[in-house]
Design a protein that fits this description.
The protein is mainly alpha-helical. It contains 15 helices and no strands. Helix 4 packs antiparallel against helix 8, helix 9 runs antiparallel to helix 13 and helix 14 packs antiparallel against helix 15. The protein starts with a helix and ends in a 32-residue tail after the last helix. Its EC number is 2.5.1.32.
Length: 340
Amino acid sequence: MTDRELDAAGIGDPALRAAYRHCRALNARHGKTYFLATRLLPVERRPAVHALYGFARWADDIVDSFGTGADPERRAAALTELGRSLEEGLRDGRSREPVVLALADTAGRHGIDHALFRDFMSAMRADLTVTGYDTYRDLRGYMHGSAAVIGLQMLPVLGTVVPREEAAPYAAALGVAFQLSNFLRDVGEDLDRGRVYLPADLLAGHGVDRQLLRWSRDTGRQEPRVIAALREFEALTRAVYRSARPGLGMLDPVSRPCIRTAFVLYGGILEAVARDGYAVLHRRAVVPRRRRAAVAVDGLVRAVAARLGAGPRSGRPGAPSGPSAPAHGSSCAPVPQEVV
């Protein structure tokens, strides 16, 4: 199936094909639900999505690599080297790093603004030193680079039926919504890495601080104040999903099933967290397998129907229009963490 995707996308160079295969493997291994949604795209669009995911995942892995408490200079050096490789790849279309080679090729084929990749790298560098955010506004500033730009990168790949600038705010919002879902699910894991993505003022409004979160995780005991704060963060996230939802109809019809499936499954994280009693400090909430299968089947039916009914489209990839693409920290948008 990989060769079929690469052939359909017109990718013939052996080195490029190997780079795209590498990115696809990263997607299949780490972004299971995201990868499932990607399978609903027409075959010729999948390699570009894999390249965008692969690069974001690679950078995110560097930020979280070498173990908790590792020398931050080691991670910073690796991230700096990736940044240099990125600039070289975007400038010359060449790189010894597979994820950069595929990304640079995708950016060139689809006319993706290079500033989006630089903003993403800035957010990754912030994760090396910033361990929390005082306000939601501060958090949104970080998420511009870590999540919103991922949605914006997807715009030329997925195609739309409206001008790209009209769809862009919805694409950015859905990228943020995905990442907020991951933040809620991963509160405990992020805390172990020394980070708290829930805004400090939101926590303080319920009498919660980092020390109380640490106590709850270490003791395994639930705390009503923490649950109340998590519920508020969930409500905030649902509001972002609502603001992003109108953009789904702006997509090229053949891309809608992919994004709709991702939209439903990432939103399902919120349902899983609530169903598990907001125990995210103690265990990871999981979207039930049966639920994922049902959504995937629905997406497949929609994808087949869209392709059977597809005629000439104004929103083809590369056209001056864009989708409402759907985010840890680091997303179909992705944020480089699996949903399950």
